[in-house]
């Protein structure tokens, strides 16, 4: 999926459902930004938001962004390690991703 075809997630948190305009606007902006980031940047952004929210933050960010809880936890782990395990200038680590199909 390329960046131009990524849809913007609609927040499922209770605050947005009851119509809190300020929070809904913040969540809409967050999801708009997330729709333009690559997979590792989304993970890190979600991890930062969860840390900012404190206890229960991972579950709340999951409702806001639609990202899997394990993805958010992975982002937190990578950030706590100062991103040392993440390659610079690439999205996936060397050897990551689908292997090329062999021509018949």
What can be said about this structure in brief?
This protein has 104 residues and is mainly α. The chain contains 5 helices and no strands.
Describe the overall structure.
This protein is mostly helical and 104 residues long. The chain has one domain (8-80). Helices cover 54% and strands 0% of the residues. The chain contains 5 helices and no strands. The protein has helices at residues 14-18, 21-35, 39-53, 57-65, 69-80. The chain is globular. The mean pLDDT is 88.
Morphology: globular
Number of alpha- plus pi-helical segments: 5
Total tally of structural domains: 1
Quickly give the structural class.
mainly alpha
Main sheet attributes: strand count, strand direction, barrel closure: none
Q: Provide the residue-averaged pLDDT.
A: 88
Strand runs, count: 0
Helix content: 40-55%
Q: Give the SSE string.
A: HHHHH
Rg (C-alpha, Å): 16 Å
Question: Are there runs of 5+ residues with pLDDT below 50, and where?
Answer: none
The termini sit apart by 26 Å
**Proportion of residues in β-strands:** under 5%
Keywords summarizing the entry:
single chain, 104 residues, mainly alpha, 5 helices
Secondary-structure map with pairings?
Elements: H1 14-18, H2 21-35, H3 39-53, H4 57-65, H5 69-80
